[in-house]
Amino acid sequence: MQYRRLGRSRVELSTVSCGAMQFARADVTQDIVTALLDRAVTLGVNFIETGPRYGDSEEKIGAALAELRLRDRVALSTKASVKVAPDADALKHAVERSLRRMRTDHLEIYHLWFVNTWEQFETLTAAGGTLDAIRRLRDEGVIDHIGISSHARTEEIIRMIETGWFDSVTIYHNAFMTKDRAVLDVAERLDLGVIAMGPLNGGLLGSDSEKLSFLRTDAEASNAQAALRWLLSDPRVTTAIVGFDSVEHVEDAAAVSDMEPMSRQKLAEIAETFETLRRDVEATCTSCGYCKPCPQNVDIPAILRALSRYRVLGTLDHERQQYARMTGGRADLCTHCGECIDKCPQHLPIPGLLELAEQVLASD
What DSSP string runs through 31-97? Predict the structure, then answer.
């Protein structure tokens, strides 16, 4: 396992880290979480990223680390949004709750999270508010480092980190979705750690589709490994958060950390091919799930994930079969209320995309 310094801090993080969003799923049981964290730490993974809105993920992490006695071998990160901690008092309660759930007395990194507009940033960083409360906890030794996680426009993210208030920035960045690459240059100049979320673009790059085989060299066993290797070939990226839900996924991802960076020629080939694909597909859902719940119970992420796979990979028959088996609400139930657009970090035209999905994926 390779390690990189988190910006100007002294913390060394494994280049492959564990994102706990999948731990919220009912089928990812406590036994599964304990087994995969045991294996992850054995393989050198030393960073676990979660959040209070990821179901019972914090509890599962706390129980696993306590049973395995691994707390001192990992760095823990959780976070607070405008909704979770809009002011200093709410922040204090949020941190205390997370500490109880994870059975620890301190956190290596705490993030301002879901800061997707400049207005949200101003709310969280107002004098005497959320950020000041986090700073006090840092001074008290409860929090070591402060980060920011954002899906905002690139120029706004840059404006946020240029305040000098943060030790790291978390951005959505992968071989297909590179809109925030300018953030990497600024973070390097400021000596900030860069945490990459969505390394497989919501699972899209993990597909075994032959159409994605251009990602691979002889070194990788799968398209997913190749996409992760692409990301870690950039030394400005401190770590990639991978959404583990099985021991096998841990082993596959961890193996990439020790691979040599891709050659410049290969990186250029991948960039050119994806540039063509992006021209064909303007808007791709990242499956973050922040659009949920839908008032009509439409399973927006699952439907748009199927639509994205079809548009990028051309797997129409497979996606039609998946669409027919979906247990959530179908796209034709959408009333165009617009709630999902307000909640979407990318501000995708979701009602229009759902309409397209119904046209394309519903069997004749």
Answer: HHHHHHHHHHHHTT--EEE--TTSTTHHHHHHHHHHHHT-GGG-EEEEEE-TTT-SSHHHHHHHHHH
In this prediction, residue 129 carries a pLDDT of 93
Over residues 223-258, the pLDDT tens digits come to 999 999 999 999 999 999 999 999 999 999 999 999
Query: For residue 287, what pLDDT is reported?
Result: 74
Structure tokens at 293: 């719940």
CB 287 within 8 A of CB 202: yes
β-strand partners of 193: 168
Strands 16-19 and 239-242: parallel
In contact, 18 and 49? CB cutoff 8 Å: yes
Rounded to the nearest 10 degrees, the angle between the axes of helix 57-68 and helix 88-102 is 40
Say which residues have a Cβ less than 8 Å from residue 7's Cβ, sequence separation at least 6.
Answer: 167, 168, 187, 190, 191, 192, 193, 194, 238
Does position 282 have pLDDT exceeding 60, yes or no? no
pTM equals: 0.85
- The larger pLDDT score, comparing residue 187 to residue 364, is at 187
Q: How many CB atoms lie within 10 A of CB 276?
A: 8
Give the residue among 119, 107, 126 at the shortest CA–CA distance from 165: 126
pLDDT at 83: 82
Nearest to 308 by CA among 283, 291, 328, 335: 283
CA torsion 6-17-257-183 (nearest 10°) is: -50
Q: What's the CA gap between 224 and 208, in Å, rounded?
A: 8
Task: Give all domains of the chain, ordered by start, each with its CATH number.
Answer: 3-263 (3.20.20.100), 300-361 (no CATH)
The string of DSSP codes covering 184-219 is HHHHHHHT-EEEEE-TTTTTGGG---GGGGGG--TT
User: Beta partners for 13?
Assistant: 4
- Give how far the C-alpha of residue 313 lies from the chain's centroid of Cα atoms, to the nearest Å: 22
Question: Which whole number is the average pLDDT over 27-36?
Answer: 97
What single-letter DSSP state applies at residue 329? B
